[in-house]
Amino acid sequence: MRRIYPFILILLFSFQAVFAKKDVVVATFAVMPPVIDLNTPPDTVVQKMIRFWQGEIEKVLPDRPDLIVLPEACDRPQNFYVDWGLEKRYYQARKDRILDYFRGVARENHCYIVYSYKHEVEDGSFRNTSVMIDRNGAILGEYDKNYPTIGEMKRGVKAGKGPVVLETDFGRVGFLICFDLLFEDLRDAYARLKPDMMVFSARYHGGIMESMWAYTTRSWFVGCVEDRPGMPSQIYNPLGNLVATTTDYLDYVVATINLDYDLVHLDLNGEKLQALKKKYGREVSIYDPGYVGAFLVTSNSDKVNVKEMLKEFDIKDWDDYYSRSVDYRNKHLK
């Protein structure tokens, strides 16, 4: 086998970064797993859950999604939660069979899938995990819920250790599961890692916290929530604005999002943004949500990415402007 030198690998990764896919088609669901008789043999339960998800995923496949997101503990019958012994025996019989099914779906449809499930590990404890499956059906990586509820931990579910951001062919993806949404330390840790997208698998919605996560991490936010009254699954842009949602008619939604973006502040940039728009026209989108003074700048060009556009007009992004403001204030105090 020929040796691949490190500098060649650097070039390959640089090429992937520059020409990463911009428009990403994302599918998410708001569905409640079926009720299954508690006396059903575990193998039959596994088969029923696979058939259930076959029916759901068929709804989004015509849009050829790049990413399919599933809710927390998506393969657990909804009534199994009342009996941990029953639930645990189901997981022990299920093993990786449903994971393998989703790996096959990802491979056959050349898409990523985030599969969220509970499972037993070697020491006999359990984890609440989101697995990222890549387009070839391989496991790209996984994230363990950092903040299981007290009830989960009493049942033997152990906490994960920190944030996880994975590199895909369309950008950097971070993960959180349900109760994680409430914890500022985790949100701040993700903000420092600068993901392009956060994927949230849950059994509850979280309300304004979803929008807050999008804005604080400066990333697109894709929520996938188990279907309950008034709890849709929704997608937010990096300014925290809702752009797509499931409804009372459709329990799934598919949206196309552009990950070649950056946030800028209006201060010192107003005339520069006008000049940017004048030169690039439809090749750049400048979205103003109102009130916050921040803009979402997105490159629609196949030749010039958003970083290059901002550099050309000496436009500093939001985080840079924020840091400069803090530094200037501190120097002024001294």
In short:
The chain has 334 residues and is of the alpha/beta class.
Could you walk me through the main structural features you see in this protein, from its secondary elements to its overall organization?
The protein has 334 residues and is an alpha/beta fold. It folds into 2 domains: 12-258, Nitrilase/N-carbamoyl-D-aminoacid amidohydrolase (4-Layer Sandwich); 261-333. Helix content is 34%, strand content 25%. The protein has 10 helices and 15 strands. The chain has helices at residues 6-18, 42-57, 84-94, 97-109, 150-154, 184-193, 208-217, 270-280, 306-312, 318-333, and strands spanning 23-29, 67-69, 112-120, 126-133, 139-144, 165-167, 172-177, 197-202, 220-225, 234-236, 242-245, 252-258, 261-265, 284-287, 294-299. The strands form 3 sheets. Strands 5-4-3-2-1-12 form a 6-stranded mixed sheet. It has a 6-stranded mixed sheet with strand order 6-7-8-9-10-11, covered by helices on one side. The longest helix is centred in the N-terminal third of the chain and has 16 residues, at 42-57. It is globular, with a radius of gyration of 22 Å. The termini are far apart. Residues 1-19 have low confidence and may be disordered.
